[in-house]
Specification:
The protein contains 2 helices and 6 strands. The chain has 188 residues and is an alpha+beta fold. The protein has a domain of 79 residues. The strands form 2 sheets. A 3-stranded antiparallel β-sheet has the order 1-6-3, with no helix packed on it. A hairpin with a 3-residue loop joins strand 4 and strand 5. The longest helix is centred in the first third of the chain and has 22 residues. The chain is rod-shaped and about 180 Å long.
């Protein structure tokens, strides 16, 4: 009797069978193992892997929707509601603090004038405030030989008078005067 011949598989067949066992075992492992919660994130997902069919209904919030798409979610504006009742009048507020008192004002305003006399080349006049009043301002004017006379000084002579001086620009034989005007008042 002859010995039966045992045919051994070729190395290629052995390698193919081993690859099939590894492939089937890997798939079986993945199907049988549950992944830990929050172990798959954005970096593990391929682009376009999550579609609306794969998202559980009512699980998304407004922050999960792109800003550009949020405007599309707004519905039409509804009708205006009825006007509400008028509210009650509020309580009167507390009285505010009294402000700082301002400086004393001017009282007893009075304008005093005095004209110069004699006809000379230079003339001056002094307007003096009445007793108890101070000079607050003043001025000067000339009359007579216009164009030939100029005011050369108009100033206060504190605390109670105003001085005016004028001079002939060209020698004139005309009669002219200079007048001092004082603005007087009661001021502290």
């Amino acid at each position: 009797m002859r010995k039966p011949v045992i045919h051994l598989p070729s190395p290629a067949t052995v390698l193919a069978c081993a690859a099939l066992v590894v492939a089937l075992a890997g798939t079986g492992y993945a199907a049988g193992v549950q992944l830990p919660r929050a172990s798959v994130g954005v970096n593990q997902l391929k682009k376009g892997a999550v579609t609306s069919v794969k998202v559980r209904d009512r699980s998304l919030r407004l922050v999960d929707v792109a800003v550009a798409d949020r405007a599309k979610l707004r519905g039409a504006q509804g009708p205006e509601g009825p006007r509400g009742d008028k509210g009650e009048k509020g309580d009167k507020g507390d009285k505010g603090d009294t402000g700082v008192q301002g400086p004393a004002g001017v009282s007893g305003l009075e304008i005093v004038s005095n004209a110069s006399g004699s006809s000379t080349f230079d003339k001056s006049a002094v307007a003096v405030c009445p007793s108890g009043k101070r000079v607050l301002g003043g001025g000067a004017s000339t009359s007579g030989a216009s164009g030939d006379v100029a005011v050369v000084a108009s100033r206060p002579d504190l605390p109670t008078s105003w001085v005016a001086q004028a001079r002939e620009v060209d020698d004139t034989n005309a009669s002219w005067t200079v007048t001092a005007w004082a603005i007087c008042g009661n001021a502290s």
